[in-house]
Amino acid sequence: MNAHSLARFPNGVYSRAAPIRSQQSKENSIGVAIEGHNLNFSFASRQAKAVPILRDCSLRIPCGQFWMLLGPNGCGKSTLLKILAGLLNPTSGTLYVKVPKTFVFQNPDHQVVMPTVEADVAFGLGKFNLTRDEVRSRVSRALQAVGMSEYMQRSVQTLSGGQKQRVAIAGALAEACKVLLMDELTTFLDESDQVGVIKAVRNSVYTSSADVTALWVTHRLEELEYADGAIYMEDGKVVKHGDATSIRSFIEASFSPEGIRSGKVKQPKNLLVSSCIQMKELHHFPLVKNM
Length: 291
Ligand SMILES: Nc1ncnc2c1ncn2[C@@H]1O[C@H](COP(=O)(O)OP(=O)(O)O)[C@@H](O)[C@H]1O
Ligand SMILES: [Mg+2]
Description:
By secondary structure, this protein is an alpha/beta fold. It has 2 domains: 62-86 and 99-243, P-loop containing nucleotide triphosphate hydrolases (Rossmann fold, 3-Layer(aba) Sandwich); 255-291, no CATH class. Helices cover 33% and strands 22% of the residues. A 6-stranded mixed sheet has the order 5-6-7-3-8-9, sandwiched between helices. A 3-stranded antiparallel sheet has the order 2-1-4. Helix 7 links the parallel strand 6 (179-183) and strand 7 (213-218). Helix 5 crosses helix 6 and helix 6 packs parallel to helix 7 (191-207). The longest helix has 17 residues, at 191-207. The two termini are 35 Å apart. Residues 43, 53, 71, 73-79 line the site of adenosine-5'-diphosphate (ADP). Adenosine-5'-diphosphate is lined by residues 43, 53, 71, 73-79.
């Protein structure tokens, strides 16, 4: 199964792995898009030893909100997101993710395959047995949500990386996706493209009548301004979980001179930290959390 086919199966059935244990409460089916309890995940090392990657991660994301997952490189963000997408099975723990769900890949060239924007967004709709008018209407609404309506007839080859990401997100929206899972989409994009993608996701969540929930992995602290809520991870654990403002304050405080003096922080490591440096002008402080 290639990357593109995974991205275009938003029904939550990526059949490579055994089914994840689900807990489906009434509350889940109404107001919660993602809920995980005590999720653990280990990789088998060459010596067949289990190497723990995620430890007792619990999270809860309400429907219809835009959330972010932040943390230093290597803390387990992508692993957790792949578990939520069903691409990896947790070693233990319980998980509920609303379906259909779509995992959007980082490389925009893995997202789009058809020659034109319109054809690409319509690509996944064949399985729904829709009339031509219904297909057109879904494609048009999805492109409007991501701000790409005027590109409908364009060749995908002429689009920027961020525009391709937006077309991929439109494809998911056209298929009535309920949960969008996105891993560092803006990493390879220039600044205006980054803002275009993040605004497209936000708009998709806020203007959609379909109650779309988005979870966005990033190590850029400044992107938090677009989020409703966030989860901060370190060393395979969820350290903090809450509204975006309190998570931002928590991260900034962790990397403040006081936080550094407390001995929890040692040397520069990642962009999350460099975002803090820019904001706090802490260039002379060593800046990585001890793990
Ligand atoms: N296929 C794999 N085999 C073994 N270890 C892995 C594999 N993928 C990721 N890891 C390890 O798991 C940890 C978390 O990785 P990842 O989830 O990619 O972190 P993040 O996305 O936060 O940078 C890292 O230490 C990484 O080296
Ligand atoms: Mg990652």
